[in-house]
UniProtKB/TrEMBL annotation:
Keywords: Fatty acid biosynthesis, Fatty acid metabolism, Lipid biosynthesis, Lipid metabolism, NADP, Oxidoreductase, Peroxisome, Phosphoprotein
Coiled coil: none
Protein name, as recorded: Peroxisomal trans-2-enoyl-CoA reductase
Quaternary structure note: Interacts with PEX5, probably required to target it into peroxisomes.
Species annotation: Dictyobacter alpinus
Function of the molecule: Participates in chain elongation of fatty acids. Catalyzes the reduction of trans-2-enoyl-CoAs of varying chain lengths from 6:1 to 16:1, having maximum activity with 10:1 CoA. Has no 2,4-dienoyl-CoA reductase activity.
Highest taxon of source: Bacteria
Pfam families for this protein: adh_short_C2
UniProt-recorded Gene Ontology molecular function terms: trans-2-enoyl-CoA reductase (NADPH) activity
Enzyme Commission code: 1.3.1.38
Catalysis: reaction(s): (2E)-dodecenoyl-CoA + NADPH + H(+) = dodecanoyl-CoA + NADP(+); (2E)-tetradecenoyl-CoA + NADPH + H(+) = tetradecanoyl-CoA + NADP(+); (2E)-hexenoyl-CoA + NADPH + H(+) = hexanoyl-CoA + NADP(+); (2E)-octenoyl-CoA + NADPH + H(+) = octanoyl-CoA + NADP(+)
Subcellular location: Peroxisome
KW Lipid metabolism (keyword) present: yes
InterPro entries the record matches: NAD(P)-bd_dom_sf, Peroxisomal_t2-enoyl-CoA_red, SDR_fam
Length: 67
């Protein structure tokens, strides 16, 4: 509410702007769904991934790295 008041707008408008700003840096233009993360984890702990000994999996929707 404070952000909305400071911006001279209502809560829903301020919330939408905050979401738009947060999602603007994600090329897929949406946050990850929990099941998208869970699917990778389930695979990695399964027998099907038993030969994987070390890897890095980036689940970031294509967001470029920033400093």
């Amino acid at each position: 509410m404070r952000l909305a008041n400071e911006a001279g707008t209502n809560y829903n408008t301020a919330r939408q702007k905050l979401m738009d700003d947060a999602l603007g840096g994600i090329p897929l233009n949406r946050p990850a769904r929990p099941e998208e993360i869970a699917d990778l984890i389930a695979f990695l702990v399964s027998e099907r991934a038993s030969y994987i000994t070390g890897s890095e999996y980036v689940i970031d929707g294509g967001t470029p790295p920033t400093i």
